[in-house]
Specification:
mainly alpha; two-stranded antiparallel ribbon; 4 strands; 4% strand
Length: 301
């Protein structure tokens, strides 16, 4: 039982991180029907920006651990959003009226550029967040001691995801995003600035990816300039499992993927955990080709 609870909490924490990254993929796809292959590298950028804030700037020595992490998260989300906006202006907006293949090639090029830029700025060697950044506190769950950081990561991701869901479904900007996702032409006729909506989407996604990058650094310590490839691929897988283009689907897919990975590594083999993950993806797509919660498509008369 103890081992099960440990793996359950580990899977939920990892799944929360995957879900945050997957939301960036699914929001861009929902509006533009485009896979932003550079999104995983924006997640990596967030992890490195977090390292710079907490270690290079030494915020913890001035305002304490809790406040420094809060300031770091705010800065990283803001800077990641800015990076996403610049990426959209430079790599995607000029190709808006081109065929989709051009946009895909541009996305791949942006991914390579960002990855190499991170390597040149911070170096090719991996960096490590301070091991003593957070005290080693455990909390009892079902009678088992669970590291507090896992609980904080999972609950934080849930709060952020619920906040995003409320924003999309209860605000005017969220309504504009949903309208643009259904039909951009009709949205323009209704007075919605679709270009502005796309810019907002490209800021929200990287901001969530940047938050996930800080979570990975604080929770697991080690970060590398190429980690966005693996995390991005798994988050993209989570978006597909849940139903790409569907925000609740991305949340569900991320958490489900984290649980599959944790239990697969624990009860079958660590070496096979990625193979198990993608095998489950294939099974789900055979049964539900559009994912567990497919994107709702409006009927056009």
């Amino acid at each position: 039982m103890e081992f099960f609870i440990q793996q359950l909490t580990n899977g939920l924490a990892v799944g929360g991180i995957y879900a945050l990254i997957a939301l960036g993929y699914t929001m861009v796809y929902g509006v533009l029907k485009l896979i932003n292959f550079a999104h995983g590298d924006l997640f990596t950028l967030g992890a490195y920006l977090g390292f710079t804030c907490l270690v290079s700037f030494g915020l913890t020595g001035y305002i304490g651990v809790g406040a420094s992490i809060a300031v770091c998260v705010a800065l990283v989300m803001g800077l990641s959003a800015l990076a996403g906006h610049i990426l959209e202006r430079a790599a995607y907006r000029p190709l808006r009226k081109s065929n989709r293949l051009s946009a895909v090639v541009s996305a791949l090029g942006a991914s390579i550029f960002l990855q190499n830029a991170i390597m040149l700025i911070w170096g090719a060697k991996g960096l490590a967040y301070p091991a003593d950044l957070l005290p080693n506190i455990v909390v009892p769950i079902a009678g088992q001691p669970i590291p507090l950081i896992r609980v904080v990561v999972f609950l934080s991701s849930i709060v952020v995801m619920v906040g995003l869901y409320v924003f999309i479904n209860r605000t005017r900007t969220g309504m504009a995003i949903r309208a643009s996702a259904i039909d951009q032409g009709a949205a323009k006729l209704m007075g919605i600035d679709v270009r502005h909506v796309i810019a907002i989407v490209f800021m929200i996604g990287p901001a969530l990816g940047g938050l996930a990058g800080v979570m990975v650094g604080v929770c697991y310590g080690q970060i590398t300039f190429s980690m966005g490839q693996l995390y991005g691929l798994k988050a993209f897988t989570a978006a597909i499992i849940g139903g790409i283009g569907n925000i609740p689907g991305a949340m569900l897919g991320g958490i489900l993927l984290g649980l599959i990975e944790a239990f697969g590594a624990a009860y079958i083999s660590v070496a096979w955990k990625d193979a198990i993950t993608f095998f489950v993806l294939i099974l789900i797509l055979i049964v539900r080709p559009t994912g567990i919660l497919p994107e709702r498509v409006a009927e056009k008369l």
